[in-house]
Write a structure and sequence with these properties.
The complex is a heterodimer of chains A (302) and B (189).
Chain A lengths: L10 E2 L2 H11 L3 E5 L2 H10 L3 E4 L4 H7 L8 H10 L4 E6 L3 H10 L3 E5 L20 E5 L2 H9 L4 E4 L9 H16 L5 H11 L3 H10 L5 E3 L7 H9 L5 E3 L1 H4 L4 H13 L4 H7 L27
Parallel strand pairs in A: 2-3, 2-9, 3-4, 4-5, 5-6, 6-7, 7-8
Chain B lengths: L1 E3 L5 H10 L5 E3 L11 E3 L4 H7 L2 H12 L4 E4 L1 H6 L2 E3 L13 E4 L10 E7 L4 E7 L4 E5 L4 E6 L2 E7 L2 E4 L10 H12 L2
Parallel strand pairs in B: 1-2, 1-3, 3-4, 4-12, 5-6
Antiparallel strand pairs in B: 6-9, 7-8, 10-11, 11-12
Classes of the chains: A alpha/beta (302), B alpha/beta (189).
Chain lengths: 302, 189
């Protein structure tokens, strides 16, 4: 080339680059892992990314206590173990945990209700970071508030650590149902709807125009089987997070591969049937109604 | 025009083709490939796409690619097209559609991902390019022509009717790279 663009004009940490990585993860499965060995099993199975954690949500739920960001040493070891992107969780509102994760070179931060919130009124100002964030939501208003704060990717909250997909379905249907309702709404109706659901009007208008959220939207919280993953994909999710569902199952490697296949071939029952064969026991799972109200995680977030 | 639709941003490529008034066909199984004359390998995770590609589809792409089917790869797609992969997994077997060696995640981690302007005769000037955990071309045979470089690194290459880009034209509204690929496809009809 006769002319080289100087690298000094490169723009890092832009919205396009943050939201763009989420676009690359679409149609893929992001798996919770607690050791570098599990991270390798996930990568072998075809995970598009791993979530580096000290404890999967099912264990956080069982053990109780304050759940915090994982040990940076563990996160660094997982980063070294795999070539795919590595995500890690910080507490809601805990922007210093987020700064630490960014300095470790984590590729995406999950500001997560699975950990104990550090701020009961505010989430992190995610625009202040070069690393992108994913946040959970239960409905459209919550999704758009997180995007307004700078989240470049959204996921359903579901109810993590239960192996029960019912809450993820509820949250995804809430989002898609609310978006469908925007169809044909006039500008004055849009303003009042924005007020009603607590969302910025401009982002609501973007959503109405696109007919979907302005960022990638994954399913999370309770996915335990290939059929669960395909269900969420058919409901319109762009990809799948699996937390406890893989490494709390009898045969994690086989189940991980099957969930990856189910996410790609989500609309092919014949392939889903094949993928679901002989996987051993899924994680045991919890009935949502049997969980004391104060132990539900999805209520965390504002 | 087929777009490999196992994982990644294949929908953006299908939309880019629609903007160029070309019908894109999502390709997931070997039998899907029979319906198309050219193929785009999208951005995404190259390790995941390689895992999901069933043996029949892989063999078909390799056979038809060798027989002259035009193929364009962007980012992960470039990695899949290479002869050699550095910084990948030992068991990551590329499709070997082009005589290039590439390094995965050559710019570093996500915080090093960037947007830049790049110049290329292929698009008749400068245009926007989005690099996300992008690869670089580290070696190429004399038959492989450099179409663009950035900060001294080769980021776009062509070998006959194969085109590989380290960045994501599908994430911008500039359709010139897709049009360039369509013109390559046209030349070989």
């Amino acid at each position: 080339m006769e002319e080289l663009t100087p690298a000094l004009t490169d723009r890092r940490g832009t919205w396009k680059v943050k939201a763009g990585l989420a676009e690359m993860l679409k149609g893929g499965v992001i798996m919770d892992v607690v050791t570098p060995e599990q991270a390798k099993i996930a990568e072998d199975a075809g995970a598009v990314a791993v979530m580096a954690l000290e404890r999967v949500p099912a264990d956080i739920r069982r053990e109780g206590g304050v759940a915090r960001m994982s040990d940076p040493g563990l996160i660094a070891a997982i980063i070294d173990a795999v070539t795919i992107p590595v995500m890690a969780k910080c507490r809601i509102g805990h922007f210093v945990e987020a700064q630490i994760l960014e300095s470790l070179g984590v590729d995406y931060i999950d500001e997560s209700e699975v950990l104990t919130p550090a701020d009961e009124e505010h989430h992190i100002n995610k625009h202040a970071f070069k690393v992108p964030f994913v946040c959970g939501c239960r409905d459209l208003g919550e999704a758009l508030r997180r995007i307004a704060e700078g989240a470049a990717m959204i996921r359903t909250k579901g109810e993590a650590g239960t192996g029960n997909v019912v809450e993820a379905v509820r949250h995804m249907r809430a989002v898609t149902g609310a978006i469908r309702k925007l169809h044909g709404a006039g500008p004055e109706e849009m303003v009042m709807e924005a007020k009603r659901i607590g969302a910025p009007a401009d982002l609501l208008e973007d959503t109405a125009r696109l007919g979907r959220l302005p960022v990638v939207n994954f399913a999370a919280g309770g996915i335990a089987t290939p059929a669960d993953a395909a269900l969420m994909m058919q409901l319109g999710c762009d990809g799948i997070f699996v937390g406890s569902g893989i490494f709390k199952a009898e045969n994690p490697a086989a189940r991980a591969k099957a969930i990856v296949a189910a996410t790609t071939y989500f609309d092919r029952p014949d392939i889903l049937a094949d993928a679901s064969k002989s996987l051993g026991k899924a994680m045991r799972g919890l009935e949502i109604g049997a969980i004391p109200q104060e132990e539900l995680l999805a209520g965390r977030g504002w | 025009m087929g777009v490999l639709a196992l994982q990644g941003d294949f929908r953006e490529h299908l939309a880019a083709l629609r903007a160029c008034e070309v019908e894109g066909v999502p390709i997931r199984l070997a039998s899907d490939l029979d319906a198309v004359d050219a193929l785009i390998l999208p951005g995404g995770e190259s390790t995941t796409m390689a895992r999901l590609m069933e043996p029949g589809l892989r063999a078909s792409i390799q056979r038809r690619g060798a027989a002259g089917m035009p193929v364009m790869g962007t980012c992960a797609g470039m990695i899949l097209m290479a002869r050699d992969i550095q910084g990948g997994r030992a068991d990551q077997e590329p499709l070997k559609l082009m005589d290039i060696g590439v390094r995965r995640n050559a710019y570093g981690r996500q915080i090093d991902s960037f947007e830049a302007e790049i110049e290329s005769p292929a698009i008749g000037g400068a245009g926007p390019a989005v690099f996300i955990r992008a690869p670089q071309v580290t070696e190429r045979s004399p038959e492989v022509k450099e179409l663009a470089s950035h900060a001294g690194q080769t980021v776009a290459v062509r070998q006959a009717n194969k085109l590989a880009l380290a960045f994501h034209p599908e994430l911008t509204s500039d359709r010139r790279w897709h049009q360039y690929f369509l013109s390559i496809d046209g030349e070989h009809r």
